[in-house]
């Protein structure tokens, strides 16, 4: 028994001694690894703090430019090193293939990202679920800024919103993979053969003409909504139609005509309701145009005349006249042929009863719709003749 105990004690002592020797031998290596790991954490934290301090002083556009420049410089350095044989295998390089690309936060599905366009304001809002207040500092946001006036970022309720103010009207084309959302900004004319802008007069705190509890802004909006239904039903992919408002908002005059000018519109039509105090018997359709506009083969007066004719045909209302309209801001500042249609007179009780009737509003919309299509046909004929 004593021999077994002595033998066990001897074996245990030898094993323990070997273990102690091994521990003593490897202790510096373990310590070095721990120190290196800790140093890496400290350096990462320091680099992040330095990046935050740098970016916090920048505007959204400046951050976009800075990130893009950093990525491009790194890509050039890696390419140069490869060409010189300093590195054998190609390192991962972020390459910009679109006008803008946004890194998707971890755990966020790209399909849940929404893109909202406000054409009349020339604004784009990109809502990214899972993005917090530090999204612009922690994730890659790359892009070309020539079409962007400003970039702002807001966060809250578990998501972040990137708001782009553009210097022209654009259509956003988007795609994504598991890492990035890719955006391209196309002009309407890159998508559509023809572009139309439709304006519902007044809105919001600007009611327009008033008769009792009936407001011009509501009648014009109802007619434009009927007009939109006609275009939506036709689904002509060659025609792009933009609306200054489809709700009770009141875009300013510069934004209304700006939507037409900055989208490259071929036609711009504004819908209004007339009123003439003290003349309850006056009725009928009038259309305003820019009498001082430069002559062209199809001009604002030609367009206004077609609108007047088609409105009479569709509604059966009295056709009054064309009216000079250069004094009106949106008329004199429109690049495209423009027509401001006064569909009827609110101060005439009989005509007002028709104007608030949805069936009559649909007829008014059909007249505008046909006028727009006929005017586009005229423009197409002119283009064909010029080609020949």
Shape: elongated
Please report which band the strand proportion falls in: under 5%, 5-15%, 15-25%, 25-35%, 35-45% or over 45%: 15-25%
How would you spell out the order of helices and strands? HHEEEHEEEEEEEEHEHEEHEHEHH
Strand order of the largest sheet: 12-9-13-16-14-15
Q: By helix and strand content, what is the structural category?
A: alpha/beta
Total of helices: 9
Average per-residue pLDDT, rounded, comes to 88
Give the proportion of residues in helices.
Answer: 40-55%
The beta-strand count equals 16
- Low-confidence sequence ranges: 1-6
Question: What integer value in Å does the Rg equal?
Answer: 34 Å
Distance between the termini: 118 Å
Mind summarizing the main beta sheet?
A: 6 strands, mixed
What features would you describe in this structure?
With 388 residues, this protein is α/β, with parallel strands linked by helices. It contains 9 helices and 16 strands. The chain has a 6-stranded mixed beta sheet with strand order 12-9-13-16-14-15, with helices on both faces. The chain is elongated and about 100 Å long. The model is unreliable at 1-6 (pLDDT under 50).
